[in-house]
From TrEMBL:
The keyword Transmembrane applies. Keywords: Membrane, Transmembrane, Transmembrane helix. The keyword Transmembrane applies. Residues 91-253 form the Inositolphosphotransferase Aur1/Ipt1 domain. One of its GO terms (cellular component) is membrane. The chain crosses the membrane at residues 6-26, 107-128, 135-157, 219-237. This is Inositol phosphorylceramide synthase. InterPro entries: Aur1/Ipt1, PAP2/HPO_sf.
Amino acid sequence: MFTIYSMTHATILITITIYVLLFFSLKRHPLYPFHAAGMFVQELFTSRKYRLHLLGCVVILFFNKIEITLENNMKHHNDFTPFIYGLEGNFVAIFQKLFENGVLTSVLTFFYVVIFPCLMIASLAIYTFQKDFKLFYTVCYALMINYMIAIPFYLFFPVTEVHAFNPNVRFLMLDAFPTFENDYRPLSDLDNCFPSLHTSISVTMAMIALRCKNGFWKRFAPISAAVIIFSIFYLGVHWLTDMAGGMLLGLFASRLALRLAEGRTIFAGSRAELKEQNVDG
């Protein structure tokens, strides 16, 4: 069975996977992934707008880290997990037992730990290489929106991961990534569950990919998003409610981010649509 032995091992796998994804996305030329990296560095040093958007993503990730510290220092800590369990019961436990398989555990752990960050990084590289800066900025806005909306929920609406609450659910992640709790857990608290960012960001990347001209990426991103959503139940991480919240957040973030990248807002877009309807009428 495939095993991830440490976060260093995971990082190496992420790097290799990004190269492979760029190879298949960028005309299957072995040097094009390096060209994409070079263009990324070039834009970073020559374009102030490009640099500021990337900085915005880094800042929001920093705030996500601060959220974990703030939450751990909060004196009054509510727990909404029993409420979620009352709504769903043993859905995840039944789902997990229905599909449990050693090979599937390895594949889905790979998607959850490796493919998930690759979707974000490869998206930025592909859109930079193709000079589709509208989609590049859309990804940046979308990531910021996802975290800006999710972080308050993690602070004030904490929901514990399924495996830690329901004894009928196994945390299958540990079968393929034994050091997960020590290596990966610092990136996300045990009760940072609703909404599911693995769901929302995967859906966001898929929705944006559907607008690009890259045939491989247009197919790969949505398929990966579907597999990642499957994995959050199978591995025993998220509740069905988390997925539903993540889906809504992903759809909203991708739509709003696209409008921002086009220099519009939802309200401006709505006014324009109403004006067009009145003219047609």
